[in-house]
Design goal:
Number of helices: 1
Order of helices and strands: H
Strand content: under 5%
Radius of gyration: 17 Å
Structural class: mainly alpha
Number of domains: 1
Shape: rod-shaped
Oligomer: single chain
Largest sheet: none
C-alpha cells in the first residue's frame, strides 16, 4: 500500500512537470506566431 502512494506522488510530479512544459511550449509558440505576423 505504501509503494502505491509513493508511485502516485511520483506520477503527480511528472504530470505537473509535463503541464508546465506544455504551458511554456504554448507560450513560446504564441510568441513565435506574433513575431512571424509582425515580419510578414
Amino acid at each position: 500500500m505504501e509503494k502505491l502512494v509513493e508511485k502516485i506522488k511520483e506520477l503527480k510530479k511528472v504530470i505537473a512537470a509535463l503541464i508546465e512544459l506544455m504551458l511554456e511550449l504554448s507560450t513560446l509558440i504564441a510568441v513565435i506566431k506574433m513575431v512571424i505576423d509582425s515580419i510578414f
